[in-house]
Amino acid sequence: MKLSSQEEYGLRCLLQIARVGDGASLTIAEVSDREGISAPNVAKIMRLLRRAELVRSTRGKAGGYSLARPASEVRVLDVVNALGGKLFDASFCDRHAGLESSCLNTSDCSIRPVLRHLQAAVDAALGELTLQSLLASEHDVAGSIHPRAVPLPVTRRLS
Hints:
Blueprint: H1 5-19, H2 28-35, H3 39-51, E1 55-58, E2 64-67, H4 76-83, H5 92-95, H6 111-128, H7 131-134, H8 138-144
Antiparallel strand pairs: 1-2
Helix pairs in contact: 1-2, 1-3, 1-4, 2-3
């Protein structure tokens, strides 16, 4: 899985808002300055996050964007899904059909179960992380991650 720049920037924007505290807000210009992301890009990301009900927007002089719920309740999985999507979903085969209108391997595909399994592992890992857990230092976050083996149905070759 490759995290898109939009997904990464979205997480960074949300972390900036989370850092100012509960109930506080930041304007698009403030988020743009703090993260070094263009204001139009921040505006686009915030619009998507608002539609996903991850942030609230307030108009006016004291307006801006605030988290729609506490940072401890905003899962990284929800942010990634709101801004980009999944590595594998039910429409994967329709989108990756090659030159044909439908995939030639629809009836028997050995790749599909592997992608489903990997997606489940990614969902599980990102579902455990919250914005609150990402407010820690890089060292602390790295120390809290426990890698898990993802068993795949691999046939071993005998020499």
